[in-house]
Structures are given as C-alpha cells and as structure tokens.
Amino acid sequence: ASGSEENDVVVIGGGPGGYVAAIKAAQLGLKTTCIEKRGTLGGTCLNVGCIPSKALLHSSHMYHEAKHSFPSHGVKFASVEVDLPAMMAQKDKAVSNLTRGIEGLFKKNKVNYVKGYGKFVSPSEVSVDALEGETTVVKGKNIIIATGSDVKSLPGVTIDEKKIVSSTGALALSEIPKKLVVIGAGYIGLEMGSVWGRLGSEVTVVEFAPDIVPTMDSEVRKQFQRALEKRGMKFKLKTKVVGVDTSGAGVKLTLEPAAGGDQTTLEADVVLVSAGRIPFTAGLGLDKIGVETDKAGRILVNERFATNVQGVYAIGDVIPGPMLAHKAEEDGVACVEFIAGKHGHVDYDKVPGVVYTHPEVAYVGKTEEQVKALGVDYRVGKFPFLANSRAKAIDDAEGLVKILAEKETDKILGVHIMAPNAGELIHEAAIALQYDASSEDIARVCHAHPTMSEAVKEAAMATYDKPIHI
Ligand code: FAD
Predict the structure, then answer these.
(1) Are 367 and 387 a contacting pair, CB within 8 Å?
(2) Cα 58 to averaged position of ligand 1 atoms, centre (Å)
(3) Which of 186, 271, 290, 365 has its CA 20 to 30 A from that of 235?
(4) What is the number of other CB atoms lying within 10 angstroms of the CB of residue 296?
C-alpha cells in the first residue's frame, strides 16, 4: 500500500536515522513509508559500518588473545590459526540477521518499505526507481531525508576497493595484507587498523593532523596512542600523502611533512583511505525543491529538524553534528516527535563517543581542553585501572577513568575512560551528565565489587576528595 496513497511521513534512507524515525512515526500512529536503495535496511551502520566492524574487532581480538594472552592464563593450544573466510562469514551472518531483523520490525510496526532510489519530484512527492519493477511515486505530508554519508575520497587517490580500499573494502579483504597503510587516524582507521594488525598485518597510520582522534581529551589520547603503539601500530603524524603509485604489485605512497619538506616513500600491500565521511545527497533532487545545504554539502535544519522547505526534514549523518549512529537515531525520534506535534530533544553536548579498539576509549561531555577554553574553574579526578581489582584479576588493566567537574559546584563536565570495555562503562557517566549530577553523586552510589565500574566511582571520589584504593 505505497504508491498514490498519501503518507503522513515518508523517510528517504533506511539507516539508523531513517529506520528508527520510520518505526517511531508508525508507533505514534502516523502512516509511514521508508524508501531504501540498498536492498537491505540498516544503512551504513549495519551493512558496512558499526556492526561488521565490531564483528571483526571481536573475532580478531579472540584470535589475538588466543595467540598471545591465553598461555599466561594457563590455556594452551597446539596451534592457533586464522580462518579468514570463516571470520568473514561470521561477520556476514551478524549483518544479515540484524538487517532482516529491521524488516521484521517494519512489519510489526506496519511501516511500508519501498526498495529503490528516491528522488524529489516536489516537496511532497518522491519518485522511486524501484530495485525491482516499476518507478512509483510516494506521496507524503512530511518527508524526512535520512540519506546518510559516504566515504570522503582524497585528491589523487583512487579507491578501487582492492589495493586502495575504503572502510567497506577493509571489511571484506580476502587476504591478510602484510603491510597495511591507513590514511587518517580517526576512529574508523584505528578500528580497521586494529583488526588487521591483530591478524598479522604491519600497520602504519598516516595522519595530516598532529594528533589521532581529534575529539578525544589530549591526556587520554596520549595514553591511547601509546597503547596502540605497544600493540604494534605505527604512526606518522603531521604527514601528508602526496603521491600514490599502484603500477607495481603493491602500492607505493609518497609522503611529505604536513608543513612541507623532504619526501619519503612508504610501501603497502593495501591502503585504507579513512579520511572522513561526507554527506550523501547525490541524485536526490535537492536543488529541484530548493533545500539549502552548507559548503560541506550538509543539509541545514532548525532545532526541529526542518529544512527551509515546508514539510521537508533531515536527520543523521546528512546534517551537521557528530556522524554517529546513536546520534542519527536520536535525531530520528526527536524529528518525528516534532512532526507528531510533541516535543523532541537531542542534547548534542552529551552524545558519547567510543573507539572500539583494545583498550577502548569512551567519552562524554567536555574534554579538559574544552573546559579550559571555557574559562571554568575545574577539578580533575583520575583513577587508573592498574588499581582496580577486577582489571587486575583478568590481567587487562591498561587505562584510566578521568572525570572533570566544576570546582565550585562539583557538577560533572566530562568523563573520559580508557579500558577494555569503556564503551559500556561510559553510560553511567552519560546518565550523570544528563541529570546534572556532581562527582560526589556518583561516588556515593554503591558499585558492585569487583567490577571495572568501581574505577568510575573511585575517579569520582578523587575529583572532590580522595580515592580509597590508590
Ligand atoms: P546511513 O546509515 O548512511 O544510511 C543512509 C541510507 O540511505 C543508506 O542505506 C543509503 O543507501 C540510503 N539512501 C541514500 N540516498 C538514498 C536515496 N536517494 N533513496 C533511497 N535510499 C537512499 N557509528 C557509531 O555510532 N558507532 C560505530 O561503531 C560506528 N562504526 C562505523 C564504522 C564504519 C566502518 C563506518 C563507515 C561508520 C561507522 N559509524 C559508526 C558511523 C555510522 O555508520 C553512521 O553515523 C550512521 O550509519 C548514520 O546513520 P544515517 O541513518 O544518518 O545514515
């Protein structure tokens, strides 16, 4: 029942922004259609992003542990080998189970799903070049653009997804490269570099900026970089790629200091380009209906996610803000709540960021540099996992919890965690921040022993008073 029947909401794009918006709209009683060109739901995140990368991170971590850590825990094998096709099959199974799961959620919530490429004909009509069958026109009182993002290419570097790959190619290599060069030290490059590094690749990360992951607190970032270096990852910071030669068996990169200077070369079997992502609006017909974008091609919206065109909204990676799946989901829910005449809310200052390497790094709120720049008097409380009994018990005690709180009120401003499971630990801090808690509020909550979470409590104690265990 798509076609000519008018919908209350039409969503273009079935990624975490789009599919969540569609389900929420249907739950609010709105007649909803979601258009997706990929053939499967879940967008970048489920198909070629968050989920396959976490599957490979987990599998490669198990291999690495089995090879390097199990013996010291008294678990021995005659030999440990990688079966790459099996590892990839496991990843593909996780992806297909989850994408099919969303189709199930669409059926359950009565979201109409149209497979095809959507293009604006008017602000209330989208023509869909169907993946199978004919072109249809889907009408909607409200249309939400959730078309996401795509890999940013570098000038002079042509991605062939074989020797020079994007994250998509890096998730599906058929062989373990001997030498992998990663261009760009953001979280995607570091995660994919970790996967192949654990499986045996020699990994060098080339980054134009002076630092890896620019959004990270610099003290934690330094420890993080050391932790990655300890695991064999090499870094060439303040360095730009000025030439790529693919004429030989591998790839020869020509590098130059960012500030200019002598050139050097670097050989690789595979080069991963992970220098950022750009909003994807190709073929959507934005100019036809006059939707405004900024210089970077991001769709401009107001606080209700409305574009300058009446009835047309945008959410997720295609609008300004952190390009993260959970942010896209929050956008989707809030946008639909506004459309339904309710109130939506996304607090962009409290979107957690997680790098899923080993150890993981997770953070929410402000970095120390940001707090300093605001001119706020603040206190810092830190607690190392070396002094946490659970981390010691499992022999995985690298990292720390760092809490920043306003000096006068003790209100928490930011929390930064490096730990094996930092991505799970961070949500206690996210709740604290959302409720304007003080560090003493966290410290006075009873935390189970022995858990990694006790390090959060102790760092909170260290913020306004003294920790017990160090
Ligand atoms: P997308 O997920 O990009 O979905 C947009 C969808 O719209 C796509 O499926 C596309 O096919 C479809 N589409 C586009 N144009 C049209 C059209 N005209 N008609 C029909 N359909 C169309 N984020 C995290 O939070 N955590 C992570 O661990 C994480 N890991 C990542 C790892 C990698 C390797 C990558 C590449 C990204 C990762 N991300 C992660 C980022 C995350 O994937 C994105 O932030 C998220 O997918 C954005 O959601 P979205 O719905 O805005 O867009």
Answers:
(1) no
(2) 21
(3) 365
(4) 9
